[in-house]
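Design a sequence for this backbone.
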């Protein structure tokens, strides 16, 4: 059998944390940063994720007797039983009263304000990026 050789790539950051990132930005002045964010930003703000047993949003929708958790986002199900979707939307609507942006959300805004952020790709539906001040045209 052939053994695969691992290539050694030079480390881009001195450390895989905020200090390492800050140092890189200070030393290299990047201008087209693309951020890809997910549930970690939202859960840090206190928003439950979708799938965690017991605490996830899908588990908390059981009171609606959904045929499957994802039905809350299914158009056919919505047309016959819209209550679950409206309750979820009301809970997550970005008013800033229940959930507020985190330091990470404001970091994204700072990158934009400094002319460094090209785009922020998010899978989150809570709009905390926008509440932190990130412009709509930067968020996908």
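Sequence:
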């Amino acid at each position: 059998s052939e053994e695969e050789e691992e290539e050694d790539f030079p480390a881009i950051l001195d450390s895989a944390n905020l200090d390492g990132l800050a140092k890189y930005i200070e030393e290299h002045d990047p201008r087209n940063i693309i951020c890809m964010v997910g549930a970690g930003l939202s859960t840090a703000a206190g928003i439950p994720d979708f799938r965690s047993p017991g605490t996830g949003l899908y588990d908390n929708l059981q009171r609606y007797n959904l045929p499957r958790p994802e039905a809350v986002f299914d158009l056919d199900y919505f047309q016959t039983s819209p209550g679950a979707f409206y309750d979820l939307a009301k809970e997550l609507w970005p008013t800033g009263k229940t959930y507020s942006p985190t330091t990470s959300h404001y970091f994204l805004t700072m990158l934009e304000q400094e002319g460094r952020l090209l785009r922020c790709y998010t899978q989150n539906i809570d709009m905390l990026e926008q509440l932190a001040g990130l412009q709509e045209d930067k968020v996908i």
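Residues 18-28 form the longest helix (11 residues).
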